[in-house]
Write a structure and sequence with these properties.
Layout lengths: L1 E6 L10 H17 L4 E5 L14 E5 L2 H7 L4 E5 L11 E2 L10 E5 L8 H6 L7 E4 L10 H19 L2
Parallel strand pairs: 1-2, 1-6, 2-3, 4-6, 4-7, 5-7
Bound molecules: S-adenosylmethionine.
S-adenosylmethionine binds next to helix 4.
């Protein structure tokens, strides 16, 4: 099973508007579905009213990333982060990353913060898992759901090539 983990936070202005939150969730779920990925895990750190009315999506919500890491400890986690945010931590450029064939969760930080990779490393959560960066050639971060689409496309191209 291939899944997406989105650490979900929105700008303060959106917090009171469930329709805007639903819209942002739709960016994730539609782009995932385009690549045949149906599991979406939201890490709802701000306790926002997140919902997903799409019955084709296996939707799960947790309050912390650590809960997800524990629940899916038999999965491989691939943490996506901008290169400039991952000083001191080994990472693989997406271009040379070999995607695990199955049972993998791709983790994306929120658009208003970054993944705390140093803490994950200290707690041992990077062992056996991967940190991957999309090399855009600039320091401008991508919207997290855009990064997801690039990663899923890369996965599709590389895995279908290896099956030929
Ligand atoms: C918009 S970024 C966070 C940007 C942060 N607010 C900043 O100013 O640096 C949100 C998430 O998108 C993903 N992301 C964005 N650009 C990326 C890249 N070039 N490579 C890998 N992941 C990326 C990461 O998961 C990141 O945590």
């Amino acid at each position: 099973m291939i899944g997406i983990v989105s650490v979900f936070q929105v700008h303060d202005l959106f917090e009171t508007d469930p329709k805007l939150i639903e819209k942002i969730i739709s960016f994730w779920r539609l782009n995932m579905k385009a690549f045949g990925v149906k599991k979406l895990i939201i890490v709802n750190i701000d306790d926002l009213p997140v919902t997903c009315g799409d019955l084709e999506i296996e939707f799960e919500v947790y309050n912390t990333l650590e809960e997800v890491l524990k629940k899916y400890s038999d999965y491989t986690f691939v943490f996506l982060e901008c290169a400039q945010q991952i000083e001191g931590i080994d990472f693989i450029p997406l271009k040379s990353f070999e995607h695990p064939a199955d049972n993998v969760l791709y983790v994306f930080g929120s658009d208003y913060s970054v993944l705390n990779l140093s803490e994950l490393k200290e707690k041992g959560y990077l062992e056996g898992n991967f940190v991957v960066s999309i090399e855009t050639g600039s320091t401008i971060p991508l919207w997290a759901h855009t990064a997801m689409s690039i990663v899923l496309y890369d996965r599709k191209v590389k895995l279908s090539d290896s099956n030929e």
